[in-house]
């Protein structure tokens, strides 16, 4: 802990201190991290960071004062809309990330059905594989979370979801793909169920919204997953993931403006006049909006097509190595770019100890449970890194087997 300096420190010294502070951070730009950060190369990130810097001080709370941000947000929604199956009636907002997108669709469904159906004790029904951010949203907004078990293939069990629906249910959730095992839920079936009950259906495509769109363009068969599916009322995609923009950029798209209207907040119940906000944040930097706008235009259709192909090739290469490894079990063959695997015999091989050994060798992977698993979010930077990774993966496994090491599950996030 450092107190505020009595006398200001020269900028070069401050920057030196910053570099020293991150000396122990994971080196995601080198391609040795399979989580949390996404890298499409030095040119793309230079565009992202410079655009963010240019607009970091602008305040997106008021687009009257900064009409450039209003125009850029509108352009981003127009560029992203086709990926999500949006049409002329669709409407959306940019948010600070997938969590805020999820928060807002839960809040919007709560308010919508309170207004139209008088629902005062709302609940949402979702598979156990749906993102933890839905739990946060329910906790924040007084909505009950009803989790249905998934099937043996890790996909949502539609019959199990149906059994949890009642007159207070306001929304069903599908994932494309779900994060833990990387499979795509039966969006068509879940959306049809929502239609039968007259309720909303949100597709969490924060991970897949870019990748699935371009895998389709590349000819890979993808089950229906976006707003083109009847009954889907909203969908979210993170641009700071496979869009390779700076952190703080996500899109939530609604089937119509009337559905989107329930997301916003308005009050004049104070002495400061009219206050309106589209999301959780009030003041927010224009940097993430400018970065998204710039990177989307910089990469274009050809850039995203090439990056998606590189990423998919790397994903398949890693998945095939795991399938062939006698000590490893792939939870599900990846339908996009997420890989989850564990030990064929957990009594012999502790996969968390394998993660520890990988970290010693300079690699970072996520840890999951249940069941005990390791998780890799493959992105473009990994296109030429898989050979090196599997060499160290195999060495780590051999070390753990020979020493019977154990490891801990750890945590995806923290409260510190």
Structural notes for this entry:
- This protein is an alpha/beta fold.
- It folds into two domains: 47-296, Type I PLP-dependent aspartate aminotransferase-like (Major domain) (Aspartate Aminotransferase, domain 2, 3-Layer(aba) Sandwich), CATH 3.40.640; 300-403, Alpha-Beta Complex (Aspartate Aminotransferase, domain 1).
- It contains twelve helices and 13 strands.
- The strands form three sheets. A seven-stranded mixed beta sheet has the order 1-7-6-5-4-2-3, sandwiched between helices.
- Helix 2 runs antiparallel to helix 10 (287-324), helix 3 runs parallel beside helix 10 and helix 11 crosses helix 12 (386-403).
- It is globular, with a radius of gyration of 22 Å.
Count of beta strands: 13
CATH class of the largest domain: Alpha Beta
Q: Kindly provide the radius of gyration, computed on alpha-carbon positions and rounded to a whole number of angstroms.
A: 22 Å
User: What fraction, in percent, of the residue positions are helical?
Assistant: 25-40%
Work out the helix count: 12
Low-confidence stretches: none
CATH superfamily of the largest domain: Type I PLP-dependent aspartate aminotransferase-like (Major domain)
Order of helices and strands: HHHEHEHEHEHEHEEHEEHEEHEEH
Largest sheet data: 7 strands, mixed
- Judged by helices, strands and strand pairing, the structural class is alpha/beta
What integer is the average pLDDT? 96
End-to-end separation:
14 Å
The CATH architecture category of the largest domain equals 3-Layer(aba) Sandwich
Please state roughly what percent of the residues sit in beta strands, choosing from under 5%, 5-15%, 15-25%, 25-35%, 35-45% or over 45%: 5-15%
What is the strand arrangement across the widest sheet?
A: 1-7-6-5-4-2-3
Number of domains: 2
CATH topology of the largest domain: Aspartate Aminotransferase, domain 2
Categorize the overall geometry. globular
